[in-house]
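Late entry, evening session. Most of the bench is empty. Finally got around to the prediction I had been postponing all week. Sequence below, unchanged from the version circulated by S.P.
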Amino acid sequence: MRYFIGFLVTIGLIVLLIVLLFHGGNSGKVPQTKVPLIDYASTDTVVRETTDEIINAPDNHRTIEITVGRDNTTLNVIKGYDGESTKNLSYPMTQAGYAVFLKALQHAGFTLGNDDTKLQDERGYCPMGKRYIFEVIQGGDSIQRYWTTTCGGSVPSTFKGNTETILDLFQNQVPDYQKQVSNTELF
């Protein structure tokens, strides 16, 4: 009888070992590791800040996108909800300037956020305020996307960095930012 119990325990351990080998001993979730932003300085990866204004009529609605990359910074003013660009300006950028900008973003918490899939879509939140979207875009795909609003703690958001500093950093990449957006409905 003792040999039979030992045999069953041995079989059970072998089955457990096989299960652990094939499943890796974890829940199947691969932890995400964030790349430091400075690692993108010499690549085609860009960072973008989008300011989406209050929810209103399509003719009055405006969105401002500032996209910063190794070679240039673009300012895009969008009318309505269907992506109609009313202003698209480009300014030169250098790799050294982009590297410093990325370091500043990193220090301001640009990569800090909540990846909760239930909060991926910011549309409809804070309808009488602004929504800010912060992205890292690689090869046309958003590899990091966080958002926050001007409505404060009563509205959920995914971004956990310093919003004001990051907004200032992006706006400072457009030499005549205030002049270019002064006639939009956002300001």
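Two things to note before I forget:
Residues 37-181 form a domain with the Mago nashi protein fold (CATH 3.30.1560).
DSSP finds four helices and six strands in the chain.
Will write this up properly tomorrow.
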